[in-house]
Amino acid sequence: MTQELTSPSPAPQAPGTGRGPGWWRDAVIYQVYVRSFADSDGDGIGDLRGARERLPYLKDLGVDAVWLTPFYASPQADGGYDVADYRAVDPLFGTLQDADDLIRTAHDLGLRVIVDIVPNHTSDRHPWFQDPELARQRYLFRPGKGESGELPPNDWESVFGGPAWTRTDRGDWYLHLFAPEQPDLNWDNPEVHTEFEAIMRFWLDLGVDGFRVDVAHGMIKAPGLPDIGHGAQAQLIGAQVLPFFDQDGVHAIHRAWRRLLDGYGEALGRQVIGVAEAWAPTAERLALYVRPDELHQAFNFQFLNAPWQADALRSVIDASLAATASVGAPTTWVLSNHDVVRHTTRLGGSLARARAATLLMLALPGSAYLYQGEELGLPEVTDLPDEVRQDPAFFRGGRATGAAGPGTDTESAPDGVAAAGGQDGFRDGCRVPLPWSGELPPYGFGPGGSWLPQPADWGGLTVAAQTGDPASTLELYRAALGLRRRLPGLGDGAMSWAPAPDGVLAFTRPGLLCTVNTLGHDVELPAPGTLLLSSAPVTVAEATAQLPGDSCTWWAI
Ligand code: GLC
Fold it and tell me: Which ligand 1 atom sits nearest the alpha carbon of residue 78?
């Protein structure tokens, strides 16, 4: 029976030309988590050569660019987000020559390359921190409280758990919003600004097309470093402005970087971009990071955290598009990354929902980021033994409490460290090395093993196993990305909501209508057009379409 349709209403329009054309406005960018993508030398750790060898796979998948997570010299206290030398490649991942080769090969294939920059903190092995005099000027040292300074300077907690302060042998304390091995930089010191601009120039000279700015909301702290005065800080992160996140002062840094990027782009005749990893409390505050004179993109984590419910999805989509449209920027959608539970698992352990969510995301106006392995439908690995864990949060107990159990699709940690639904809220389960081929671990990941154990039942999920199988998730991604290229109306541009029954979303893009059935059962509709692509088999008979539960379908109109 056809269900009653609700009345149509317009969705906020994303302007097509807010700041002129730009490749990034509707690019699909694939996140390569280098240590888990492909290993060329058999040490069980992915590397730049391995990634380079697999670039043709990404070209064939149909993405526009790759984002490489940090491969810089680092003691690896936090998967390389603790950088000791921003201009050197860690021997684990290769050499500077390998980075250069990778960038050239990507460009030859028509793929752009974005690299991570980590400006909120360095490694404690960074030469600046190693030199006590320099350290005092360039990091955030404070005397302790208490009779003999034995108490931390304030009540801030590390995102990974425990106090955000560590006391040195000299008796003073330094701030680390993340692990103690990641001291926060003092962005009141102009030398810090100069150094990061120089680092950016270094990588731009090597040919990169942009930067993913790690903790882009973190560099500036409220004057006087005031207490939060709240016992449950973790719940506030991303929900309100805290004295250490999303301070208005960070925007001056982004404006300076935009000038640098634009200047470089003009000189080189190409557009180089910045994408903010910023956990802001509202879509409006997130949009501040993509004002015309700031960064180009900011990950839309509110979409990532939305539950699989039609109303919730629609309101997050509306709020996101309205907020970014108000500053002339596109929205940057994302469902998975190396910090959150893979969306197959997060959306209730349902591959059907994950496939549908991806087709929804790829039909929305703006840019989208894919995380390696989601194109294979990989689930979160939820049974890693403690002895193989590497996430520093696991050892500090940061996210274990408060993380909901597997299958929860409404609650998630908003700080980028762990959305709920994984093993226990920690991040190793989304970082297990990719399965490329074969029936047994390491499934073609490399000639050796893999730094985290891969499940024994991933033989059917490998790239080789899924290639050519029209029912596979890999072929669904290939088809969707192919259509996105061929249909000029997809990507940046207008969208409007169309009538749909409760639990179902329908919206149009130029030449296309997208339906999303978030219910667990079939819904019958008048066929809205000619079937183009669906995340699950759709039956169309006598102008009536049977939308399977948890599915998304693209129709030509
Ligand atoms: C970002 C990274 C995350 C890292 C943290 C500290 O959130 O994505 O992996 O642990 O910053 O650098």
Answer: 10
State whether residue 323 is helix, strand or coil. helix
Mapping DSSP to helix (H, G, I), strand (E, B) and coil, where does residue 52 land? helix
Instruction: Tell me the CA–centroid distance for residue 265 and ligand 1, in Å.
Output: 27
Cα dihedral angle (203, 45, 275, 381), rounded to 10 degrees?
180
DSSP conformation letters of 186-239: -TTSHHHHHHHHHHHHHHHHTT--EEEETTTT-S---TT------S-HHHHBTT
Instruction: Give, using CA atoms, the residue closest to atom 4 of ligand 1.
Output: 81
Closest atom of ligand 1 to 178 CA is 6
- Residue whose CA is at the smallest distance from ligand 1 atom 3: 339
* C-alpha distances in Å from residue 279, one per residue of 46, 121, 341, 446: 28, 16, 16, 35
Q: What is the pTM of this model?
A: 0.93
Q: 417 alpha carbon to ligand 1 midpoint, in Å?
A: 7
Pocket lined around ligand 1, Cβ cut-off 6 Å: 78, 81, 118, 178, 214-215, 277, 338-339, 416
Q: Count the Cβ atoms, other than its own, within 10 Å of residue 368.
A: 26
CB-CB neighbours of 227 under 10 Å: 11
Q: pLDDT of 274-285, one tens digit each?
A: 999 999 999 999
Nearest CA to ligand 1 atom 9: 339
Q: Name 368's Cβ contacts closer than 8 Å, sequence gap at least 6.
A: 28, 29, 332, 333, 334, 361, 362
| Pairing label, strands 297-298, 332-334 | unpaired
Over residues 49-88, the pLDDT tens digits come to 999 999 999 999 999 999 999 999 999 999 999 999 999 9
Residue with tokens 């400006």: 119
Q: What is the pLDDT of residues 303-325, one digit of tens each?
A: 999 999 999 999 999 999 999 99
Distance between CA atoms of 528 and 517, rounded to whole angstroms? 14
- Would you call 107 helix, strand, or coil by DSSP? helix
Q: What end-to-end distance do the CA atoms of the chain give, in Å? A: 23
Whole-angstrom distance, CA of residue 90 vs CA of residue 72: 5
